Structures are given as structure tokens and as C-alpha cells.
Amino acid sequence: MTTEGTVEAFRKAESLVAQRRPLEALQILEPVLDIASDKPSVQLLAGRAYLFSAQFQRAELAFLRVIELDPSDHYARLVLGRTLQRQGRLSEAQTQVRLAATMYPDPAYQEALGEINAHLAVANAHE
Question: Where do the TPR repeats lie (predicted)?
């Protein structure tokens, strides 16, 4: 695949993820992952597609790879937290979303953290 073809495939996959068509996006993204697995943007897009298709373990691995490549990526931490939350791993999710909200004090991040905190409070009340 040429550089131009890789960019085109990435953009097409990005569009499909935005349209909530993650399985199609992953098919198109597969050769891009083979070539550019060390690119945070490629891993982030793959992680989002995995998350949207409920492939939580794959999503987690992709988001962890983004954080390994770029520890300052607050969005990767947010979606990693959401992925962990979907797996019922609330304490781990809280840690990642808290970090994301600290790095990037956006109301949406605070809302996500509040949601996880509420789930944890309910879970702790039932123990």
C-alpha cells in the first residue's frame, strides 16, 4: 500500500467510525495497522472502532498502545476509561478518566468521571 493509499484508507475508516460503522472501518483499517501500528492516530482510530463494535479487550489494548506512544494523550485515557467501564472495571476506569479530566478539564470529561463515581458509589453501597 502506498503512502497515499494508507492516508486514503485511514480517512475512509475514520469516516466509517464517525458513521458508527465500526466493522467496515476495521476491514479498511487492517492494512493500515499492518503498516503504521506505531502511529498513535491509527491505534486511536482502531480502538474507537473496537469500542463501538464491543470488542473491549482489543479496544483496551489499542488505547494502552496510544498511551504508551504518547502518555499525554488525554482522549486516549478517557476512552480507555470508558472501555474499562464497559467491562465493569470501575476502579481502573475511574483512575484513567480522572487522569484525563486532570489533563484536560473539559465538562464532558468531568461528566464521565461523575458517572463512574456514581456507579462506584452504588456498587460500594451494595457490598
Answer: 40-73
